[in-house]
Amino acid sequence: MIKKIITFGTFDLLHVGHLNILERAKSLGDYLIVGVSTDELNYSKKAKFPIYSQEERKTLINALKIVDEVFFEESLELKRSYILKHKADTLVMGDDWAGKFDEFNDICEVVYFPRTPSISSTEIIEIVKKIK
Ligand code: C2G
Q1: Structure pTM?
Q2: What CA–CA distance (Å, rounded) separates 43 from 63?
Q3: Average pLDDT of the chain?
Q4: CA 93 – ligand 1 centroid, Å
Q5: Quick one: the chain helix, strand, coil %, rounded to 5?
Q6: Atom 14, ligand 1: residue with shortest CA distance
Q7: Which helix (H) or strand (E) holds 80?
Q8: How far apart are CA 54 and CA 50, in angstroms?
Q9: Best residue among 5, 7, 10, 74 to mutate for probing ligand 1, ranked by most atoms within 8 Å of CB
Q10: Nearest to 35 by CA among 2, 66, 5
Q11: How far is the C-alpha of 36 from the C-alpha of 100, rounded, in Å?
Q12: Does residue 58 line the site of ligand 1, with CB under 6 A?
């Protein structure tokens, strides 16, 4: 039977930390589904829009050979229905979300991987801002 893995994220300014978690997620199964958060969802969470548009972020994630399917995550509250709709066996998230999604243990396995240290979209923005 094919084992399906699902993960979620903004994936703004795609970097090696994103790639690492997607590779680790894929290593747990056969089919990797990625929910890319919409611009609106980001705005509601962080009061700012990502640098790359949702279409650009989805296109980049879709181009990775380890990724099998991509959809837009429109609301954090819909996570349960996304997991059920995609028949995911395992939910993977970085450990900045540790414990936050344990409630889905009744419908799938929930795995948190350690974040890749010293890189984030926010840090990239800060470094670029300082370049004169
Ligand atoms: N990540 C990581 N290492 C980094 C940076 C990010 O492992 N250095 C992981 C995060 O833990 C997350 C994924 O990459 O699992 C995507 O990170 P973000 O784009 O920051 O996603 P976020 O804004 O946390 O959105 O429903 C949940 C949200 O959509 C997650």
Answers
A1: 0.96
A2: 25
A3: 97
A4: 7
A5: 45, 20, 35
A6: 18
A7: helix 79-85
A8: 8
A9: 10
A10: 5
A11: 18
A12: no
Ligand 1 neighbourhood includes 54 CB (under 6 angstroms): no
Residues 6+ apart with CB under 8 A from 126: none
Q: How far is the CA of 94 from the centre of ligand 1 (A)?
A: 6
Which residue's alpha carbon is at the smallest distance from atom 21 of ligand 1? 9
Q: What is the pLDDT of residues 65-74, one digit of tens each?
A: 999 999 999 9
Phi/psi of residue 14, nearest 5 degrees = -40, 125
Q: What φ, ψ does residue 69 adopt, rounded to 5°? A: -155, 140
Q: How far is CA 24 from the centre of its chain?
A: 12
Q: Kindly report the protein residue whose alpha carbon is nearest to atom 28 of ligand 1.
A: 9
* Any atom of ligand 1 within 6 Å of the Cβ of 92: no
Give 28's contacts (C-beta < 8 A, 6+ positions apart): 3, 5, 90, 92, 111
pLDDT digit string, tens, across residues 21-62: 999 999 999 999 999 999 999 999 999 999 999 999 999 999
| The pLDDT of residue 132 | 80
